[in-house]
Structure formats: structure tokens, C-alpha cells
Amino acid sequence: MKILIVGGGMGGTILANNLARKMRHDLKSGKASITMLSASDKHMYQPGLLYVAVGKMNPTELYRDQVSLLEPSIEFKVDPVVEFNLDDNNVKAKSGNTYNYDIIVIATGSRTHAEGTPGLAEYAEQFYTEADAVKMYKKLESFEGGKVVVAVGVPHKCPMAPLEITFMLVDYFKQRGIWDKVQLHYTYPIGRTHSLEPVAKWATPEFERLGITYETLFNMKEVNANSVLSEEGTEAEYDLLITVPAHKGMQVIEDAGLGAGGFIPTDRKRLNMEGRENVYVLGDTTNLPISKAGSTAHFEAEALAENIASMVTIGSATRDYDGKVFCFIEAGEGKATYAMFNYQNPPDPKAPTAGIHMFKTAYNKMYWASARGLL
Ligand SMILES: Cc1cc2nc3c(=O)[nH]c(=O)nc-3n(C[C@H](O)[C@H](O)[C@H](O)COP(=O)(O)OP(=O)(O)OC[C@H]3O[C@@H](n4cnc5c(N)ncnc54)[C@H](O)[C@@H]3O)c2cc1C
């Protein structure tokens, strides 16, 4: 049984390690094999980019060698897939090699698509890559006050990032002693401040308490040198524009016709690609209407590892993914809260505490144990 995992990010790595432990006898006897193909030999802890953008983490802390995170029984290759031939059970990779499989798991992640809004990539600061987060920090350092707009597009990975960066900016400006010179304004595409209603109900009064203004039903249409125009016909003027732009899946997914926007139609419980029994999808790459978050990828990977292992040993899947997501929310002032939810139960964020912030800070280090499948 050849298992091929495409993508060595949060979802792919946690799946591979869980699977390697559950199937160790089959791997040892040669009855099964696990191969991972990825686009990089490094693994990035992406949530750390938020901290890099406000000068609270050094980018060097974000990386580990991918091979150091994987169980030794997993064959790992840096060889990005360029072609998916699902009817023939194989993929073609950049090296020119073809990899055959019995089961494939696609976990190639998602990427920002600021280019989809004219002017956005040119004028706005972003923090979804190392280079962008460092550039944003340098811009903040030279900022002396004025109108700051945080403009959000959907879909995007990390549902809490728009709120977190907004609250972290308040802290940043306070620490610089220029908060009284800043007018912070937040825009969001739907009719409330967050896609999850209970989170919006918690965040909106926090905005009001801190003096952050906001505009909902604001879908970015175009950006010029000093304002953002919305599809709804309004305008937000800025001196400093920060964005969480809309995302897409990977180009190779779109090019292969696997899913619109690079997001693959996926069964919400079994996580197989719709209409395909031996193709599974994890994390940001699914088209599921749930958060594109590391925790989503993590909980999906745990369920899928059990299912693949049981399919290999007893020929049947044994577990459904229940839609579980857990996201910390950095709330500023040294505090944090969290949102935990699944397909049945909405989140219910509580008042932020210093304890949860400390736990989040600790998790930033503990993540590496999580990636190894140990947490
Ligand atoms: C600023 C920021 C803050 C965040 N904060 C949080 C948070 O607090 N909590 C949370 O839960 N989540 C957070 N996230 C989101 C989280 O990082 C992602 O949702 C998560 O990494 C998704 O996992 P994934 O496995 O689907 O994709 P990724 O982790 O992005 O991995 C994709 C992998 O696919 C590989 N790949 C790409 N193309 C190919 C190809 N053609 N062939 C082979 N391999 C390929 C890449 O090299 C990579 O290894 C944050 C993200 C960002 C950017």
C-alpha cells in the first residue's frame, strides 16, 4: 500500500507522523510505505509571522528542517508536484519523476492573492510571508501617527489574524507612545466584524472600548495611494494600510482542474475528494466552509490518520472528522482568549486573560511537538 502525501506543512506533517506510528508494523514489513513530497526543505510555523510583524519574534525562530520533524520511516523529498493524474493514480513532480500511489493526500495549503484587488499589493503592508512581515515591521518603525486601516478580504487563512493584528497594533502603538496620534480603522467584508457571529459579538465591544472604528460590508474594490474603495461605494482613507487579503489555493490545484480557486471539493466528514475514494484533502486546500487554520489541519490529520490506518488493516474507515477547530485570539494588553467549535457547536469566546496569553506564547514553542504528532 503506497501512501503519498503532497505538502509538508501543518496538515501533511501531523498526518504523516500519526500514520507512521499507527502503521509502524506495516511500514517495517514493507506492506505499506509513506512518501511525502513538498515544496521546501524547511517547515515554517506560520502563526509566528503575526509576532514578527510587530517586532515580537525573530524570523529565525519560525523554521525547522522538515526532515527533523518526520518519523524516520517516512520517505521525504523536496520535489513539488506539477501535475496530478488522479485517473492513473500518479503525480508528476518538478524533477520530472512520476510518483505512483494507492492513496494520495493533498495538503498543499493556500496563499494570499492581493493581486486580485487593483493597487492592494502595491500600497498595503501584509504579514503572510517572512519578507512581508519584516517589511511591515520596518514600515511600522518609521510610522509616527495618522490613519491606519486594517482591510480584510475573504477567504483567508487564520480566521483570527485580522482581529489579532488589530489588537496587537494597539499594543505596539501604545508601547511606542504614539497611540494618541493614531486613528485605527478596521474593515470587514460581511455585515459584522468577524465571520463567526459569537466572535464578532465579543470583538465589537472590544473595538469600541479601545476606540477602534470599524466598517462592515466593506469589500475591497481598488486601492490608491491614500484610500481604499469598496464595492459598496464607500472609501477608507489611510496613511498606513495593512491588509489580510483574500486567499487562493495553490496554482497547481487550479491548473489541474481539481477545484475552483485552488480549493478542492471535499467530503466534510471523511475528507475524501468528492467523487474519489483514494484521494484525501487536508487543511487549507479543502473547500470546506470552516476556518483555514493550523488547528483545523491538525484535527483533520488526526482523524484521517486513524481512517487510513484502519483502511489498510481492516479495509474500513472508523472515524469521522467532526469539524473541530481551536483558535487562540491574541487580544492585546497581555491577554488572550480562544474560540473552540465544531460542525455542531459554535464558539463561545470568554473574556481574555493573561493566563491564556501565556499559554499561547508557550504553544508558539510547543508547536514543534505538535508537528511531530506528539501533542
Ligand atoms: C500570519 C498567520 C497567522 C496564523 N495564525 C494561526 C493561528 O494562530 N492558529 C492556527 O490554527 N492557524 C494559524 N494560521 C494558519 C495556519 O498556518 C494554516 O492554516 C496551516 O498552516 C494550514 O496547514 P496546511 O497543511 O493546509 O498548509 P501549509 O501549512 O501552508 O503547508 C502547505 C505545504 O504544501 C507545500 N506545497 C505547496 N505547493 C506544493 C506542491 N506543488 N507540491 C508539494 N508540496 C507543495 C508547502 O511547501 C507546504 O509545506 C496562521 C497563518 C498565518 C499566515
What does this entry look like structurally?
This protein is of the alpha/beta class. 32% of the residues lie in helices and 25% in strands. It has helices spanning 10-22, 24-29, 48-53, 66-69, 120-123, 130-141, 161-176, 197-210, 251-255, 294-314, 354-371; strands spanning 2-6, 33-38, 42-44, 63-65, 74-78, 81-85, 90-93, 98-100, 103-106, 110-112, 146-152, 182-187, 213-215, 220-223, 227-230, 235-237, 240-244, 247-249, 279-281, 325-332, 335-341. The protein has a five-stranded parallel sheet, with helices on one face. A four-stranded parallel sheet has the order 13-12-11-17, with helices on one face. Strand 6 and strand 7 (90-93) form a beta hairpin. Helix 1 runs parallel beside helix 10. The chain starts with a strand and ends with a helix. Bound molecules: flavin-adenine dinucleotide (FAD). Flavin-adenine dinucleotide binds next to helix 1, strand 2, helix 3, helix 10 and strand 20.
